[in-house]
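Hi R.,

Here are the chain sequences for the assembly we discussed:
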Amino acid sequence: MMTLDILYFAWLRERVGEPREVVETNVETVADLVAELVAKDERYALAFADMSSLRVAIDQELTDFTASLKGAREVAFFPPMTGG
Amino acid sequence: MDIRVQEEPFHFGTEAQAFSDAQDGAGAIVTFTGLVRDLPGTPLDVMEIEHYPGMTERALAKIAQDASKQWELSGSLIIHRFGAMRPGDQIMMVATASKHRKDAFEAAEFLMDFLKSRAPFWKREITADNTSWVESKPEDEDALSRWDHIQ
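And here is the predicted structure of the full complex:
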């Protein structure tokens, strides 16, 4: 089992209903983690309905949904960024 | 390289002058400032910017480092605000200094292109009628491809 801090930003945070949570999991990849969340509660299903419009960072580095969670401590999900 | 992520306003003139004063041997300085634009139709009351503390600073530092590798810069500055702003307020600024203007201009454009879609900021527009998250534009992502040759 590993313990992950999961963070949500912008409209994803609103749909999930909280900015941060701690999850215990055995999954291998980001996509597996999303599947596990989606199976847990309908609000995740709503939040992750269109994965193509989402971004993910592991330990504050942008990555993709196929990335391994090995050694990860913090996983953040968010919509495309709109800085500048 | 100076990276600042802050809620409070900055004074563009003071920052630009201080940046210029700090340069040694530069022949050109380029600055860019982004302002909160009003909306067509219903006026914008507030623009709110959310960010990812920690990752924001790292992402901006990475972008500035990438620029320093590609262009001969004697200095670079990025200031980006978060929190609530009103139309006309300054959101962010970048400044680049180099011996030559071409490097300074190109590096400033590079910083802008990347911080728009690679730094974790999200804008939300609040009007009297509505609150909505600003959507990223396909052209923002396309803008990055013109720098493919240096990645």
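The beta strands of chain A are 2-8, 20-25, 55-58, 61-63, 74-78. The helical segments of chain A are 10-16, 30-40, 42-47.

Let me know if anything looks off.

Best,
T.
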